[in-house]
Amino acid sequence: MTYDFRLHFTQELGNHFGPATDSWPATAERVTPFLAIVVDALGVDDGLRWFEAARQRVLEDERDDSFGFAHYLDTATGAHEDITLPVVAAFEALKGAYEVARRERSVDVDMYFECAAQACSRLGQARRDRREQLEQGRERRVAAQ
Length: 145
Description:
Blueprint: H1 2-17, H2 26-42, H3 44-61, H4 69-77, H5 85-101, H6 109-144
Helix pairs in contact: 1-2, 1-6, 2-3, 2-5, 2-6, 3-4, 3-6
């Protein structure tokens, strides 16, 4: 799953920064593995939900910094209610991505989370389309028999 996510995430970064990867911020390369861990651990649908929650927190952070990113993420995603190895891995990876991304002054942190959410959305749609094609193929084979 990581390969598919990384491919879609890279495409989203290209849509945002342009095709010349040497002009991308240095943090793009460092953030990618962290975000891929989230999708590997949780899957595309929950990864999307977590990226959207992270993005919302970053946007709210500009208005009010009364709680830290980790606390908000824990509450928004319900991570504290389901402490499994995949949830812990995703939680720590997303915190890591946040810490790395916010070191880049030329990039808004929420942009990475937005690109990750878009990548999950595309990937999820592609998988749903493929499942539908397979199901239609099965139905045609059954009907032809």
